[in-house]
Amino acid sequence: MGKTGKKRVLPESAVAGVVSKGDIWAKLSLVIMGIANLRRKQIVKGCVFLFLEVSFLLYMAKSGIEALKGMITLGTQTQGWVFDEELGIDVLAEGDNSMLLLLWGVLCLFVIVAFVMTWRANLKSALEVQELEAKGKHIPGFIDDVKTYLDAKFHRTMLALPMLGVLAFTVMPLVYMILVAFTNYDNTHQPPGNLFTWIGLDNFGTILGSGGLISQTFWPVLGWTITWAVFATLLNYIGGILLALLINRKSVKFKPFWRTMFVMSIAIPSFVSLLVMKTMLQPDGAVNVLLKSMGWIKESIPFLTDATMAKITIIVVNLWIGIPYTMLITSGILMNIPESLYEAARVDGANASVMFRKITMPYVIFVTTPYLITQFIGNINNFNVIYLLSGGGPSTLDYYQAGKTDLLVTWLYKLTVSSKDYSYASTIGILVFVISAVFSLLTYRRTSAYNNEEAFQ
């Protein structure tokens, strides 16, 4: 029941509408796509629907059903050497390829989904032309449809190609990699020589609670990932705000100059800065050499070779890259805080510290909460800083294919490139997504930026 006491009526589905209201031609559209359009002189649209249906049926009969079967089995015949009695020698017998079978299966699923959507559009079109005919209205032809899609529905025309690109190059590979997490596609199951199979949730059990080396790697790496994300986000955020407050003080001169100087670290590509810092922080790098020449140290500081020191170094170096971003964002926000709020606070006897805690910070947090959440999730997946600065090192035998400073995303990369444990890498990718999505949704829905969008209180 709604607020007015009226029962909410759910929209009727296309199938239900055709069954309950459709004439014989609309009902035939359930089986023969486009026949209702052809009956009412929409020749081009009807032919397109019919062509798509025939093409789908031919595809399914020729290769679609086999693709689904192959997706279920993931292959039965492995590649190997067999003795050929006619030739009297061993010959290489071709085998199935689980990777390709899974790929064709995923493609077939997308084709089926696309056909179902097209079939539904055919039913809606059948009802529309039936209704137009019943009311004696003009039934649009092909030219009319073209004009509509170049005018009233132009947004659909413009979005069609980008959406196809997203489906083909983002959604489909994503679905494929998610399915890999439910297989044993690892370094011992490399098709076509050794096929991989479906194993359900075994990979999740292995990573989360098996007690094996992979599980003993996952939890410490997850702990460091969260620790890194918290420090990298909060320190950059607080540092950027303080820097913006300092530059925006009325007593500070040459404000554009100071902003430009700090923005220089953004203008230089981050990978260049990280590689330069990595070189400077080596045992024989510029920093250690300079400190030794000044007599401040006798032994090189293990900036990147000691586990604890490497983590601290990474967090500190990241400040150089992250603080200017926050400074730029908060500078604009600080300029837009109503001066009347500060004047009213001064009248009430508030000092600078109270105004900062009661006005400035709440206002900045209110505006930048979505940015703060985005930065936290971005730092969980911050591949560049870790990979380019420390490479995940220092290495350790306590972890499986991971170093002491590896994040989940860099460990995932190593599992894919170095050890070819694709199933474990895919499983970790799913877990990272779940962690990021749950944190983002729960946090954002509890913020004032979400609950009170109209104004800052």
Give the gist of this structure.
The chain is mainly α. 67% of the residues lie in helices and 2% in strands.
Could you walk me through the main structural features you see in this protein, from its secondary elements to its overall organization?
There is one protein chain. By secondary structure, the protein is an all-alpha fold. The chain has two domains: 16-75 and 93-200, no CATH class; 203-451, MetI-like (MetI-like fold, Orthogonal Bundle). The protein is built from 19 helices and two strands. A two-stranded antiparallel ribbon has the order 1-2. It starts with 13 loop residues before the first helix and ends in a 6-residue tail after the last helix.
- End-to-end C-alpha gap: 33 Å
What oligomeric assembly is this protein in? single chain
Q: Unreliable runs, pLDDT <50, ≥5 residues? A: 1-5
Average pLDDT for all residues: 88
Q: List the secondary-structure elements in sequence, H or E.
A: HHHHEEHHHHHHHHHHHHHHH
User: Helix proportion of residues, in percent?
Assistant: 55-70%
CATH class of the largest domain: Mainly Alpha
CATH A-level architecture of the largest domain: Orthogonal Bundle
Any idea of the CATH topology of the largest domain?
A: MetI-like fold
Keywords:
MetI-like fold, disordered N terminus, single chain, 67% helix, 457 residues, mainly alpha
